[in-house]
Amino acid sequence: MEMKWYIPIILTPLFAGCVGENTSFRIADVAKKDNKLCFSVKGDPTIEQGQAKLLRLTLSTRDTNGQMQEIWQADHFDNPTYIVNPNQCLPVNYHFEQNKEYNITIITAYSTTNVDSKRIWLKNFTLNNLTTK
């Protein structure tokens, strides 16, 4: 029981490292633009320098059991040719519904063999809570 005070000291550096600038996770942008949804990314050197290619774009929604289930995917992992630019709307061909919770996952990299170049962009959203650009 005397060890309880060690837990915050041990876990604090671990959690601090998880949200640092070097992590591969980023927040994707989702907004309404011209009556369509716009999924985009920004704020990373690989994107800003025009080096990032789209590897995979996945859309999930919450099912009746409360679990997120994949409902749509564009997979370019084996042959990434689509260059991702900052604030560029990425193509998602899906009919979204009101009052549903969605999650978008965008994976980019400038090299499929260099793990450090991969970035994973995530965003949970509903149509009701999106802003208009």
From TrEMBL:
What NCBIfam families does the database record attribute to this sequence? mostly_LP (NF045617)
| Classification via Pfam families | DUF7480 (PF24295)
Instruction: Spell out the InterPro entries in the cross-references.
Output: DUF7480, T6SS_periplasmic_put
Q: Where is the DUF7480 domain?
A: 28-129
Taxonomic source organism:
Kosakonia pseudosacchari
**What's the superkingdom here?**
Bacteria
What is the designated name of this protein? DUF7480 domain-containing protein
